[in-house]
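Here comes my example:
=====
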Amino acid sequence: MEYSRWAPRYESIRKEFGFPFDREVAAADLLERLLPPSARVDPLGRLRSRLEGREAIVVGSAPGAGPPPVWRLTAAGPAPSLIAADQATAECLRAGLVPTVVVTDLDGPVPSEITANRKGSLVVVHAHGDNVPALEEWVPQFPGELVGSWSGPPRDGLVDFGGFTDGDRAAYAAEEGGATRVLLWGFDFDRVEEATEEARARKLAKLRWARRLLADLDGEGRSPLFLWRRDGSVVRYTDDVHISERAGASTR
């Protein structure tokens, strides 16, 4: 997504959650310093080389979702790419699936993401004002190919293709990477498993944004977006009544 279209949404998110912009910039600066030189070269081109012209399965970590049943897909054309959103990486690996791309802000099971990176996954590491310690700890430990991202204005060493949570940002990455269509597996915007009421409320607020940002993507992007349900059915994201009733009024 062009930054001119993403910026107003990013500003609304920052205001709602109280994210100071100077901390976002500091985290992005740190990530650029921590990334190896190869990770700062043509990050979008390297992402597109893995996704362009292929169907993308974006794997979320909704309660009880498990790994995507890729055997259900019709074998036609090139094999789909698999994009794991943070915690979903561990589920994929347990099922013997190595993600094509991992999208993470390093608040999940990072050792699983390092293992996937060692096995060939490109890892998109996202910097924001709240994950500076995680960046310092984990970025130097990744042995394979990396891309850095943040949510602010374009800069040479990092990408910003839009998205807020790891799940919707992974869908935005698929669209930016030239996927022919995007299937969302393991997405639930209403159920969370956080331990405290405060944490649950904050998570649900983030998921409300994820829901509407995905509706924006389906309406404005080049790659059609679909929900892949556990019963095997596939439905266009904005055709799903459960989605449209909650996202439609807020979609820009």
In short: The domain at 3-250 is CATH 3.90.1480 (sialyltransferase cstii, chain A).
